[in-house]
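Hey, I was hoping to borrow your eyes for a little while. A protein chain has come my way and I'm curious about its shape. Take your time with it, there's no hurry, and the full record follows here:
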Amino acid sequence: MRIAFYAPLKSPNHSVASGDRQMARMLVKALEHGGHSVELASELRFYLREPEPQSFDALKIEAREEAARLTRLWERDGKPDLWFCYHPYYKAPDLIGPELASTFAVPYVTAEASYSRRRNAGLWADTQALVVQAVEQAALNICFTQRDRQGLADAIPQVALHMLSPFIDTSVFHEMPARGCPTRLVAVAMMRPGDKVESYRMLAQALGQIGHLPWTMSVVGDGPARDDVKALFAGFAAERIEWLGAIDPAAVPDVLYGGGIYVWPGYGEAYGVAYLEAQAAGLPVVAQDIAGVPEVVRDGQTGFLTPPHDVAAFASAIERLLARKDERTIMAEEARRFILEERSLDVAAAHLAELLPKISVS
């Protein structure tokens, strides 16, 4: 099948690393793994940071121009067999695919579409209406989390919804090197205002409660809030925390292998690709039972999910894994098994291969 792939929030080729970019790349890989030919339909980034009508109007003009370009291309070279849109939501609706798919009688598919009634105010109500139209048109809507599935089901009854668990390419984790330092904590996250800073804040507060223990920590990440994040950890001795900054994604596994426990509170995480990678490397996770984190971490089996906003519970979970070697080892082994056997590219590709042949034009 020839598939036109589009990610309005962030192209797979975007220069800035993020979970969105990584999952877009993983979906392309999974589709190709299933024998499909995948072409990036457009790199237009349709993203509204704030509900500004002027910005929205400007982006709509760009979207129309891009749709006209693709129309000419398809008329000349032939249309694709499928339009696959990754992660349309209120700040990044798909303004290209639905109309093209309808005009050319091409099946339309979404993955990780989301809808939240609390966003229905002002311009966001208009952009969410566009998401609703796309989801209603789609022959298939692939959901990565039960939270997203429920949001779509509640708002748009009788649409075609199917689950696909979040996954990663586990090939780089198949070889297990010698275990790293068991008291080495690891966190991998961008440094930007909002949920990321709040997670760093909670992490700093929790570590402050277990300063008597002999832990060290490696932090991978950078961003506009770098100074604010580092200020949160100013009370710790310099030798305790290694700030690695933004590193090549290919280097992240080595950092994970060098650690013993993955720690990240997870405010606002859709699910968190980094949690999957950490577990694939054999690191048990300490996170909050919040947002989409329970979709990728099994509480009590591959790590601990603590009550939201409870700093003391988060600190206690880290302390428990630092102190109990046997429990930490069991969780590490189960975390690695869970990802390699259940959340791999091969598993996702097989699931997609079952779903896609069943679709038709809505």
User: Anything to note?
Assistant: The two ends are 18 Å apart (CA to CA). Residues 2-167+344-358 form a domain with the Rossmann fold fold (CATH 3.40.50.2000). The chain has two domains: 2-167+344-358, 170-342.
